[in-house]
């Protein structure tokens, strides 16, 4: 990895550690905890809808912090330095996406099996949920970077990021939940989910970098 990319990655990870990287996991826990109060104490029902609840909670939790993904760089002038750095802007954005996923998405993946116990989700299904989240959450991070780049120069732009990316995240949610269904072969939806993640991983940094260049111009 080029030194500018390593610097971006290490800086964003350090900022995430100092800025409450566990906030997403706490929000995830709140969603899972409040669900039984909403649907009732029917364990069979909770076990049936548990994977969908875990996915929805992870999706909403992954939105936290997206407004600060590029906003802090815009405010302190680091964004201008990124344009002048020798490394391509697309790769620098990709490094920021990776740092965001390591600080926000990966803890959600690790917490999902534990939270699945609270919904009476069996170990086998919890494993499927964790695998699907491992494949799908990078796609959510890439989508979030595009939304953050489009709104970085706007006041209260963080409120617009979920509105912009949630419609695009619907396919990830659909195939992610389908991959967790224990009554069907999960290979096909998991393959589609992996394809979506790869596509967003390629297009996300390019689209976000393009939005940042338009902002500078």
């Amino acid at each position: 990895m080029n030194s500018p990319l390593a610097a971006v990655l290490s800086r964003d990870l350090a900022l995430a550690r100092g800025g409450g990287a566990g906030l997403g996991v706490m929000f995830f826990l709140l969603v899972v905890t409040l669900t039984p109060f909403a649907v009732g104490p029917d364990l069979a029902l909770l076990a049936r809808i548990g994977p969908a609840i875990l996915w929805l909670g992870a999706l909403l939790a992954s939105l936290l912090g997206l407004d600060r993904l590029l906003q802090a760089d815009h405010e302190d002038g680091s964004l201008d330095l990124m344009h002048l750095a020798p490394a391509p802007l697309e790769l620098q954005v990709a490094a920021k996406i990776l740092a965001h996923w390591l600080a926000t998405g990966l803890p959600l993946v690790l917490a999902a099996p534990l939270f699945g116990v609270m919904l009476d989700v069996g170990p086998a299904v919890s494993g499927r949920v964790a695998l699907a989240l491992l494949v799908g959450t990078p796609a959510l991070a890439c989508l979030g970077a595009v939304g953050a780049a489009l709104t970085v120069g706007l006041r209260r732009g963080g409120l617009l990021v979920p509105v912009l990316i949630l419609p695009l995240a619907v396919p990830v949610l659909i195939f992610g939940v389908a991959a967790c269904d224990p009554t069907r072969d999960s290979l096909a939806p998991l393959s589609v989910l992996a394809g979506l993640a790869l596509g967003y991983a390629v297009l996300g940094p390019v689209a976000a970098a393009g939005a940042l260049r338009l902002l500078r111009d």
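The chain has nine helices and no strands. Residues 3-216 form one domain.
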